[in-house]
Write a sequence for this structure.
């Protein structure tokens, strides 16, 4: 049986891996400054167009997968583990300009120019894939030696990968994280309300309504094997925060195809107006956190249009209504403007019970078929107050005589 050498094994492995169907990929290109790979440039062990440039080895100009998914936790770092007193083994920036040079070889972190034990390294953290292959463009420096080539490190897991040797000399130029598996192992957050939008708990809440609520659902539509999405405890702050509540209030974790429903409650208010606050929910999903404006608008009750003079709201204008007006005739300084004193005989809603109210009752006396109901009235004086008002009205009339 013919023995396959180390180079043959590496070649067979690379060929086998290149046939792998990768569902997404994450590319990081090392640059020393001014030599970024341009957006839309197709390059890589497996060709991709969304490359993230790590300027100076650490400042990422973007954090996207090839499919355009944002990876907010992505970081890159370079460094070295040892050097001698002369500093001649310290890594430095280099560019390969020989045969086979390309956009990715404009800058390389040269790990071991003088044949030492591989003292430089490149680390990518915040990898969003649950399992992946890693391809690193290694080797070659200046116009000397062999051209850089891709070296594959298959079947990796975890959120961090470090290449620490640069293939025994030469530079590290770029790294590709290649997601393994059909269906996409990337966690993907979905919501029932678009991020940065408004969640309206009611645009015409009646004063008689004590509370109103709505729901917000978050989900992870990533396929089986994708990372869980950690969802922080929701926070409500600013504006009218005290009138809004959300449950559950704690931290949740969303696995593949899992969802979490939140109930958002507006307590209600005794005063008409529009009430708002801000809801924030942090996540470690590639899409980042969520921010919403919560809004609720409270309106006064709708006047049902009782017959003028139907003070007991039974749909008829008759003796009982006359009795109400007679008992309260002369009262003034009553609440008015929203028919608050209707049941006392204030037909024209002017805060006084007098001849004009009697005239309206007289004109409709005997009519029936009007609306009935329990129109919410507020600030109606207590019986003791009514008695005092009646006495005051009587005194005023006597004084006027």
């Amino acid at each position: 049986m013919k023995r396959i050498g180390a180079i043959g094994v590496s070649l067979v492995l690379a060929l086998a891996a290149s046939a792998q169907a990768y569902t997404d990929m994450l590319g990081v290109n090392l640059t020393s400054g001014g030599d970024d790979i341009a957006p839309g440039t197709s390059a890589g062990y497996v060709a991709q167009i969304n490359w993230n440039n790590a300027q100076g080895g650490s400042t990422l100009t973007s954090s996207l997968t090839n499919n355009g998914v944002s990876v907010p936790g992505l970081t890159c770092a370079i460094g070295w583990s040892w050097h001698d007193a002369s500093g001649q083994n310290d890594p430095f920036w280099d560019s390969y300009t020989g045969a086979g040079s390309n956009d990715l070889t404009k800058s390389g972190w040269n790990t071991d120019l003088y044949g030492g034990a591989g003292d430089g390294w490149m680390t990518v953290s915040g990898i969003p894939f649950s399992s992946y292959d890693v391809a690193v463009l290694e080797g070659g420096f200046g116009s000397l030696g062999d051209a850089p080539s891709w070296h594959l490190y298959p079947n990796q897991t975890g959120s961090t990968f470090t290449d620490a040797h640069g293939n025994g000399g030469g530079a590290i130029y770029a790294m590709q994280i290649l997601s393994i598996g059909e269906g996409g192992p990337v966690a993907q957050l979905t919501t029932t309300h678009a991020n940065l939008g408004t969640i309206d708990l009611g645009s015409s809440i009646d004063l008689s309504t004590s509370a109103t609520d709505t729901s917000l659902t978050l989900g992870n539509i990533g396929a089986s094997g994708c990372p869980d999405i950690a969802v922080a405890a929701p926070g409500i702050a600013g504006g009218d925060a005290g009138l809004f509540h959300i449950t559950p209030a704690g931290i949740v974790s969303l696995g593949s195809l899992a969802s979490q429903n939140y109930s958002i409650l507006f307590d209600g208010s005794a005063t008409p107006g529009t009430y708002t606050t801000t809801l924030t929910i942090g996540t470690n999903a590639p899409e980042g956190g969520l921010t919403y404006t919560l809004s609720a608008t409270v309106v006064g009750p709708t006047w049902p249009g009782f017959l003028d003079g139907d003070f007991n709201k039974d749909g008829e204008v008759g003796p009982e209504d006359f009795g109400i007006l007679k008992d309260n005739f002369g009262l003034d300084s009553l609440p008015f403007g929203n028919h608050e004193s209707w049941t006392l005989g204030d037909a024209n809603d002017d805060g006084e019970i007098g001849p004009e109210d009697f005239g309206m009752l007289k004109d409709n006396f005997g009519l029936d078929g009007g609306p009935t109901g329990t129109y919410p009235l507020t600030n109606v004086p207590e019986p003791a107050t009514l008695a005092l008002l009646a006495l005051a009205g009587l005194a005023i009339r006597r004084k006027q005589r």
Observations:
- Confidence is low (pLDDT under 50) at residues 1-19, 113-117, 378-401.
